[in-house]
Amino acid sequence: MNRSPEPLTPPSSPKAKRVVVLGSTGSIGTSTLDVAAALPERITIVGLMAHIKWRELAEQCQRFRPAIAVLTDRSAFDQVDRSAFPVGTELKFGTDAACALAQESDVDVVVSAVVGAAGLHGTWAAVEAGKIVALANKETLVVAGALITELAARRNAKLLPVDSEHSAIFQALAHHPLAEVERVVLTASGGPFRGRTTAELERVTPEEALKHPTWVMGPKITIDSATLMNKALEVIEARWLFGLTAEQIDVIVHPESVIHSFVEFVDGSVLAQLSPPDMRLPIQYALTYPHRVPGPTKRLNWRALSQFRFEPVDRETFPALDLGMEVARRGGSCGAVLNGANEAAVARFLNHEFGFLEIARCVRAVLQSHHYDPTPTLEGLLALDRWARQEVGRWTPSPLNR
Ligand code: NDP
Ligand code: MG
C-alpha cells in the first residue's frame, strides 16, 4: 500500500470527502465531477484518472486542482503537453500509478468508473486498501464477484452501488437483513430495440444501436443496453452486491426509466426508488451516503407522469438475459468468460465486423466451450478473460450477420 506523508489536497471543509475518480473522462466520470462541482463543501477531488483523453483530463485538473492525475495509455502519455496541466498536479503514467492513487492513505472514496474489465485493477486496489468504493464498473463484479466481495469483507471496504438499479435496491433495502427479502426486480428500459422481432434485428447498425431512448452513456454500455447484456451483467452484479441467489432476481421492462428497481419483502410489501433518469443522483447518493443533500438532479415532475408501463422481457429476441441468469446461477469462471467475450464481441459489432445478433450468439458459444472452474483464482480469471477475447477474435460470423 502506498502511503503519502502529506494529505494530497487540503480539504475544503472538515466534512468534505476526499475523492478519487478512476475513469474521470467518461460518462459516469464527468457526471461525478458535476456532482462534485455542485457540492464543494462535501466533495474534494484529490485524484483523477483517464486512459487516452489527456486534453479532457487536463481541463478537469484545471477545474478541480487534484494533487495527482494518471493516464493509462502509453501513446497518449507520450503525447501529453504537460503545460496544459496545473503546476500543482503531478501527472503519472500507468495502471500501477492508478492503483497506487486508489490506495493513498488520505483518500476516503474511490469512484470506480472505468469501462470494462480494465476497471478491475483499480477497484481491486481500492478494496484492498479498505476504501469506500462508489462502484459503477459492474464488470469487476461480473468477472470476480466472489473474490472481490470476500476481499471487501476481509479489508473492511465498502462497495456502494452507483448503477441506478442497484442504488435503488440499496436504498429500498435500508438495512433490512437479507432474510427479510423475498426477491428483487431490476427494471430495464428495453433499449432502442424494444418491441422488435429477431428478423428486424438481423441488420440493425451500430449507429442505430447507439441511440438509447432514455439514458446518455458510453458506447459499450449503450450497446449492452440494446442487446440486454447490460441487464444480464446487472443480474450478476446484484447477486454479488446483495448476496442474493439467481432465483431471487427478476427483470421487468419499464420503458420510462423512472422506477429504478423493486425490492419485495417476505411480508409481501414492495419498496421502490423513483427519480428522473439521471446518473448524477445515484452517484451523489454513493458520495454523500448515509446522508441526503440537495444536489444538481432535477426533480420528478409528477404532473407530467401520465403512466408507468411494465412488460415482460422478450427473452427469445434478447437471449443475452438468459446467459446472465445462467452465469449468476453457475458462478465460478463463467462471469469472466461472459464478460471478456461480450467486450470483444461488442467491439467487433461497433467495428462493423459482426451483426447485432452475432453478439449474444458468439458469447454463448464461447461460454459453452470453456473449461468451467468453480473456484478460480484472480490470475485464472484474468487468463480466462484473455482467452475469451481471443476466441471471439477467431469467430467467423455467419454471412447473413456481417
Ligand atoms: P465511458 O466509455 O463513457 O468512459 C469510460 C472511462 O474509462 C473513460 O474515462 C476512459 O478514459 C476510461 N477507460 C477506457 N478504457 C480504459 C482502459 N483500457 N483502461 C483504463 N481506463 C479506461 O463509460 P461509462 O462512463 O458509460 O461507463 C463506465 C462504467 O460505469 C461501466 O462499467 C458501465 O457499465 C458503468 N455504468 C455506466 C452508466 C452510465 O450511465 N454511463 C450507468 C451505470 C453503470 P478515456 O476517456 O481517456 O478513454
Ligand atoms: Mg443500470
Molecular structure report:
The protein is an alpha/beta fold. The protein has two domains: 145 residues, Rossmann fold (3-Layer(aba) Sandwich), CATH 3.40.50.720; 224 residues, RNA polymerase sigma factor, region 2, helix turn helix motif (Rna Polymerase Sigma Factor, Chain: A). The chain contains 16 helices and eleven strands. It has a seven-stranded parallel beta sheet, with helices on both faces. Strands 9-8-10-11 form a four-stranded mixed beta sheet, covered by helices on one side. A hairpin with a 4-residue loop joins β10 and β11. α14 runs parallel beside α16. The N terminus is likely disordered.
Summary keywords:
Rna Polymerase Sigma Factor, Chain: A, single chain, 402 residues, four-stranded mixed sheet, 15% strand, alpha/beta, disordered N terminus, binds magnesium ion, binds NADPH dihydro-nicotinamide-adenine-dinucleotide phosphate, seven-stranded parallel sheet
- The Cα radius of gyration reads 21 Å
Beta fraction: 5-15%
Write down how many β-strands occur, each being a DSSP E stretch of 2 or more residues: 11
Instruction: Supply the helix-strand structural class.
Output: alpha/beta
In the CATH scheme, what's the topology name of the largest domain?
Answer: Rna Polymerase Sigma Factor, Chain: A
Helical content stands at 40-55%
**Helical segment count:** 16
Oligomer: single chain
In total, how many domains does the architecture comprise? 2
Rounded average pLDDT = 95
Q: CATH superfamily name of the largest domain? A: RNA polymerase sigma factor, region 2, helix turn helix motif
CATH class of the largest domain: Mainly Alpha
Terminal Cα separation, in Å?
48 Å
